Amino acid sequence: MFKKILFQIHWFLGITAGLILSLMGVTGAIYSYEQPIQKWLNPESYTVQAEQKEKLTPAQIFQHFQQADPAVKINSITIAQDPAASSTVNIVKEGARKGYNMMINPYSAAVLPEIKGREFFQFIQQLHRNLTVGETGKQITGAATLMLIYFVLSGLYLRWPKKHSAKQWLLVKPKLKGRNFLWDLHAVVGTWVIIFYLLLAFTGLYWSYDWWRDGMFKVMGVERAQPEMQAKAQGKGGPAAEGNKPSPAGAAPAEQGQNKAEGRGSKGLSPEQVSAALTQTWTGFNAQVGREYSSITLNIPKKANGEMEVSFVDAEPQHERARNKAAYDYQAGAITKLELYEDQKLNEKIMSSMLPVHRGSFFGPVYQFFAMLASLIMPLFFITGWMLYLKRRKQKRLTQLARSHLTDAAPDLNAKPWLIAYASQTGVSEQLAWRTAASLQEARQPAAVKAVQQLTAEDLKNAPQILFVASTYGTGEAPDLASAFEKKLMAQALDLSHLRYAVLALGSQEYPETYCSFGRRIDAWLSSNGAVQLFQTIEVDNGDAAAIQAWNAALAKATKLELQAMTLEKTFDAWTLTARRLLNPDSLGAPAFNLELKPNHEALWQAGDIAEIQPGNSAERIQAFLQQHAVAANTPVDAAAQSIAEMLWDRDLTVEVEPFANMRHLLEQLPALPAREYSIASIPQQQLLRLVVRQQADAQGQLGLGSGWLGQHAALNSAIALRIRTNPSFHLIDDNRPIICIGNGTGIAGLMSLLSARIRADYTDNWLIFGERQREHDFFFQSTIEAWQTTGMLKRLDLAFSRDQAEKIYVHHKLREQAAELKAWIEKGAVIYVCGSIRGMASDVDLALTDILGAESVEQLKQDGRYRRDVY
To answer: Residue 722: what are its φ and ψ, rounded to 5°?
Structure first.
């Protein structure tokens, strides 16, 4: 259970925060190489033709600008030792908090071309730090970074194998297919980048939260700057100057130690005094420092205290921020302070060089390169995680479909019951278990399906025959939920000599060492406890259809039963679309339609059931597809009476099509469009099937598959392919206990069917809480609902129209307002029905119920069938 909870949180945070982390990763990778990229883009700014003479000294450069443009206020001057490297003058510029770096020719002081790309990298920096939306974005990126730490640690725990194999841990297996390949890519590459992501996250939070930064200083044993110093720095440069916080990535050497562009020399010293101070410092410091350096920066003094601040970079620095600091008394001609970076302790180096640690340059160019690659592939985890999530959702839908195939045929009273147990990680085994049960029930065999984690020793002792459908997960492990079964029940020695069994083991042959190993362990355990094997374990490689049919055939042979082939093919019935009425003209929301359909056959359903429709393509889309592939619309398909245009109505026309030999070959490449499900808003006694469908559209204006078909493309009085799917978890109770119906938007559909059935049964203890945007435009079925209220068939009605007042009001607000009434109804045995959007409404209602009734009470309501939901 602990592992399951970790996994659920892992994927939920992944599909919500993954996009932000992907953006941060890509922008961080780009920004980490800002300096070399800038130098590559601007060779005419960073390099000059070396001349056979000395570079201009800082004093000469200062004097040049005093003569050329006295209005220019210089902050600092940087001279590089490389003869071909330009010099840098940092000047005061409006809007530039750290001043503006002006590149000059070191031999003539001529201003070199302005650096291109500065604005781009400033944008990338802001996107990386706060998504360009200030403090709000900073909080978002900070929270996403905390989630990254959780992803790394939980992913490592979830992957931790029982058998430690370097091959399993570190090698991507390109031969894997489908979900197995996605999982392997996600997990293996995730293992490669663990160290990088942890370091990036731990250091990145330095700029996100003060409490985190304080904690880092304490853990590293480094004393932060004194509060008054911090206040002083903040007064000059704002939050970015806080404490020992490094300057932004890529800042040029002249920016380091800047006094926030105040314009040194603007007061206290005359230009002549500044020039003399620069001359004396340049001559004296170079004579006394006794170290080679690659560049040196002299900060223009603003006080007449005889001291000049100097910083310089060693000839071979550890990283771009490894700067030495000094103070030179130009009046006394002596160095008064010299702080060498190399003399600092490791912990002090780390805390004073947080940006190089974050981007990786602190550990050398090789590490920085791999850290950049790790950041650049951050989107890989978001994409593979989403694909795995979508595949799990698809598998759950298939499982639900398999359950719906169970027959209601009376079982043979003389037949021995079957117990079918499944161990599933992604839903495939559960789906196959229900398909097997359906196959046996069609042969009038009593069959029950159970998850292995729910099995007890008594179940095994009492069952005459059992079928196991078991997946192998990870490196030969049981699925997460099945691990307790293996640890507890399979650790016991039981007398199972009465039991006949068979095992369907699922796995992947790309993992030869652990292929189907959990299923094999179940087989070995049952056999060792005396159980009798019906037939050899059948192993399924990656859901191979032939192996599944072999399972069905082996079961038929062993039982001498005529078992139908297991299939998920759907059969749709023909219904006629008789009416389509817009429910919300002039609404702020998307159009919502009341659709009425009549069957061409006898149709039965219950309140709360689902209508599954097969959508189709518009005539325009079919015509465009035929024109694209140069096919005439009336071209026949084989000897069929239908033309190709007619047979394309329900095919997915967006897939890639290979060259085709004939129309049949073309059709075989086009899968059927996926079905769409809608809550039914009527009951059979009303002689029609009503749906409430809101039109959906994508960013390009393309209508949704189902809503576009039902709301626009399908003509009135045309045939609609539709099938009823029973939905027992939302069926109406069959007694007169009170019910509380809660919903929003098109969720009114499922509630209308429930209320219609209740009112027809003359049950009046009904409470409806419904929400939409505006009462004037969005009060769906207003006349019917108000008539129910007037006649006393609807005892309570609470409406929440969110846009009818300044403060938005939703159904969960109404629920909280009526908390006392809710408790009173629950005490009378009321059953709660919730129908509508799961995002927002359903989750907010669930939270409100929990706050009002308590978590234990809500859980008990679920177990007792008194809290039922049909949400989407």
So the answer is: -145, 145
Residue 128 to residue 612: CA distance in whole angstroms: 45
* Same-fold call for 405-559 versus 573-725: no
Q: What is the Cα–Cα distance from 595 to 722, expressed in whole angstroms?
A: 13
CA angle, 829 as apex, 828 and 832 as ends, to 5°?
120
Two tokens at 724?
């009823």
Q: Which CATH class is domain 405-559?
A: alpha beta
Please tell me the distance from the alpha carbon of residue 85 to that of residue 107, in angstroms, as a whole number.
Answer: 10
Between β-strands 676-679 and 610-614, what pairing exists: parallel, antiparallel or unpaired?
antiparallel
Confidence (pTM): 0.47
Question: Could you give the CA distance from residue 502 to residue 143 in angstroms, rounded to a whole number?
Answer: 49
Please give the Cα distance from 221 to 510 (Å, whole number): 50
Per the CB < 8 A criterion, the answer to whether 492 and 526 are in contact is no
Strand-pair partners of 394: none
3-state secondary structure of 816: helix
802 in Cβ contact with 773 (< 8 Å) = yes
Predicted pLDDT at 566: 64
Reported as a single tens digit per residue, the pLDDT across 660-684 is 878 888 888 888 887 788 999 999 8
Which helix (H) or strand (E) is 398 found in, with range? Answer: helix 378-404
DSSP secondary structure letters along 611-648: EEEE----HHHHHHHHHHTT--TT-B-TT-SSBHHHHT
The domain spans of the chain are 53-110+250-344, 405-559, 573-725, 732-871
CB-CB contact of 337 with 9 (8 Å)? no
Query: For residues 723 and 815, is the Cβ–Cβ distance under 8 A?
Result: no
pLDDT tens figures, 46-75? 999 999 999 999 999 999 999 998 888 999
Which option is the CATH number for 732-871: 3.40.980.10, 3.40.140.10, 3.40.50.80, 3.10.20.70? 3.40.50.80
Burial classification of residue 210, based on how many CB atoms lie within 10 Å of its CB (0-12 exposed, 13-18 middle, 19 or more buried): exposed
Rounded CA-CA distance 776/808 in Å is: 16
* Number of continuous H segments (helices) and E segments (strands) in the chain: 32, 24
Cβ–Cβ < 8 Å for 516, 538: no
Q: 378 or 838: whose pLDDT is higher?
A: 378
Q: What is the pLDDT of residues 398-448, one digit of tens each?
A: 555 555 545 455 566 778 999 999 998 656 788 789 888 888 888 888 989
| 26 touches 375 (CB < 8 A) | yes
* 218 contacts: CB under 8 Å, gap ≥ 6: none
* 523, two tokens: 């087989």
Which superfamily does CATH assign the domain made up of 573-725 to? Translation factors (2.40.30.10)
Q: Dump strand ranges (E) for 29-86.
A: 74-80
pLDDT tens column, 611-663: 989 999 888 888 999 998 888 888 888 766 688 888 888 888 888 888 887 88
Write out the two tokens for 639.
């000897």
Q: Mean pLDDT, the chain, as a whole number?
A: 85
Bridge partners of 78?
88, 297
Residue 857 neighbours by CB distance under 10 Å: 15
Q: Put residue 855 in one of left, alpha, beta given phi > 0 → left and psi -120 to 50 → alpha.
A: alpha
The residue ranking higher by pLDDT, 314 or 167, is: 314
* pLDDT over 80 at 395, yes or no: no
